[in-house]
């Protein structure tokens, strides 16, 4: 306790409540309010409606939601496999190449997403790999952008789990593949889940690279929301934004609740 | 998967061949580094396949580029300063003047990291926009004919939204650092007569410096790269480098110009990233919890 007087504590909490209220709670409440607004001419909306959610679940909006979820699942899944593979392989590499490669696998998170998208456009609009105009280029963009987060989470997990269990398994004669499946991966499971759910949430909200590469017919939610709000349908856009946030958070929360045997032992 | 490369369990236990790193490295190479290399190549492309520096001369001399660079740098610097100030205040109260639910509140703020950045920009138009709550209330209360506040559609709107979105990235390492500060030390200092501000200056802030540097350099990188907020607020005249690249490539079909800008932007981002990594390695594992 840093402040002992009751008055001092109350002031500090009031400051905290004000800051968090204005900066975080107010925008969150307002965007939800806007998503159910029928008419908003005065200070606050005068009519409420669920029409924007009905619109969101039909036609092109439903297709956007589906495109975002499919892209998110696919890109995060592939990034998880690739990132875990890289993190596990790097554990057994000599120190110098290991440090260099560690940075290499993190670099995609440092490059602006628009430039990643531009690079994919330039690279895959020409032979030998023609991906421009296909769904694959969207998946690749999302995969690249979340790959560093997958790798980072798994390699952080690997540095935290104790090697004892693996060494015991090894001394008991467990083959490498068996040891990986039955010892290392179960110990890593919390980090694998965290990697996947963070990647999924980031992919759901990705805008910069997608807006550069998306083909007609595969409009992800953020791209669609920008188009819709740009046309002036701000309440429809808000409803879609709420759906996007809820989907991302639902996956985060649901996955974090999976009972993990290894953690309980 | 690396352990597959072990010849037999036992002798060379944790030293298999390094070749298992090749598949993921090739994937990243083809999908990420090869496109980056082509951006670099394209930025030097002249007529008839010859390399030229004229593209750079054209871009670097343009008013557009100067203004975009200026906006990118000032927005990133001011927003980072804002994140550090706000993050420090929030973390200090949450960590050292705790109340029931303060840990939950810290976790709720942390989940904002996972939300799309443009959510804040969109919400801000309803609050601070010309027809937003704040302006309408002020117009009614003061009987004004025109909305009095117009800061949202300037760099200040972008900065405010970025401060909101990126403050959790400062709070993560700060709260981790504060959890390591010995509570007894504060109580002893306090019982010896040190006031709140002296304790903050002499005990808490020194412990916070590594976290502030790490969080601050990460914020600098993320605010430099930010695209969604700038696009959604759509302020006329507030064009940052990522937005200018998008405009050049998608709206003007000037791929060469876009590639030149992308090379400059990527170099800027990579130098900020190396600043971040250097800060992290200076302070070792003390700022754990950051990607």
Primary descriptors:
heterodimer; A: 265 residues; mainly alpha; MetI-like fold; 2 domains; 12 helices; 74% helix; globular; B: MetI-like fold; disordered C terminus
Percent range for β-strand residues of chain A: under 5%
Percent helix of chain A, as a range, is over 70%
Shape of chain A: globular
Strand order of the largest sheet of chain A: 1-2
Distance between the termini of chain B: 23 Å
CATH class of the largest domain in chain A: Mainly Alpha
Distance between the termini of chain A: 35 Å
Structural class of chain A, by secondary structure, is mainly alpha
For CATH, the homologous superfamily of the largest domain in chain A is named as MetI-like
Residue stretches of chain A low in confidence (pLDDT < 50, at least 5 long) are none
Major sheet attributes of chain B = none
Quaternary: heterodimer
Describe the structure.
- The complex is a heterodimer of chains A (265) and B (291).
- With 265 residues, chain A is mainly alpha-helical.
- Chain A contains twelve helices and two strands.
- The model of chain A has no long low-confidence stretch (mean pLDDT 89).
- With 291 residues, chain B is mainly α.
- Chain B has a domain at 60-240: Orthogonal Bundle (MetI-like fold).
- Helix content of chain B is 70%, strand content 0%.
- Chain B has helices spanning 22-43, 54-61, 63-96, 102-111, 118-128, 133-142, 155-178, 183-191, 196-225, 228-233, 241-251, 255-282.
- At the A-B interface, α1, α3, α4, α5 and α6 of A face α1, α3, α4, α5 and α6 of B.
